[in-house]
Design goal:
Strand 10 and strand 11 form a beta hairpin. The chain is an alpha+beta fold. It is globular. The chain has 14 helices and 11 strands. Helices cover 45% and strands 14% of the residues. It has 2 domains: 238 residues, set domain protein methyltransferase, domain 1 (Alpha-Beta Complex), CATH 3.90.1410.10; 87 residues, no CATH class. Strands 3-8-7 form a 3-stranded antiparallel β-sheet. Strands 1-2 form a two-stranded antiparallel ribbon.
Length: 326
Amino acid sequence: MSAGASGRLARLAVCRAFAAARAEARVAETEHGVSLVAARDLPRNSRVVSTPFVSWAMRSAAFALANGPSEFLAAFGERTTRETVALAMSLLNERRNGESDAYARTLPDSFHFTDVCLNETRVDALFRGTETAARMKSRGAFIRSLADATRLPVEDVSWAIGAVSSHAMKNDVVPYALVPGCDLLDHSSAANCDVRRDAGSSPEIYCATTRDVVAGEKLTISYGSSLNNDRAFRMYGFASPELYANDSRGVDIDGFATRFRGVHPSAPNDAFERSVRELENHRQKALDAWTADAETFSRRVVDDACAETLRRGQAEIIDAYVSALR
């Protein structure tokens, strides 16, 4: 998760301020932000970071909905959208109140992967040919309309949506909330920690090791087993070769629509083989389509390292399709 210099320095305090930092973990700075590493050798089931009930419950979508402008929020029919808007507005209010120790002030000053969506020309330059392009344009339109409806600066709304999309958790353990401290753990497909919750009416949420971890090893959780680079970039602001196996592209040939999944030269798997078998007698047409796509797909180098990884991966996936279909 990228952050400017001030954002990195502020986030160094997040464990002290919100997550009851433990001796088992320490904060490490990287060029893209901060993360947690093991402070010593840790056995399985070691609790590495904990978030008290009040810190996450008051930053939950349920709390934001209950305390937000009900008539305004009711206009957003889809529940997840309504919860996202409520949570974003609540977080923005926390940021604008100006408390020096507020969680909102520990977050990055801006989110490039969200800000870029407000410029369709930039979206086209960076992401043409990927799922991300259409999704980013749609998000840009949503942010602008939300800014108009709330009469808030579009930069503030962009920040709030970026903060929620990249930091909020929603799973069987966390009922859609911002969880200070636990949000320091980056994604890994081979995560060494998971997110858990204590029992009781006022439970802590915490991250614990799922195996033995050595001192200095990065502490990670999974953001989802099906996470691919398109979603990782537009939601969290990163892309990784580790996710190539989940990437996919669609094709429509003479009314025959299919989606190639899980293809990359470094990550062969059964998902792609099934995609190829589904083509049956359309293999040559698919080959022609992918060859043309490979010739027109832009491979220009971009400034953002994550976007560059995303685009490089997409180009390599096209090459893999063409090679396999031959």
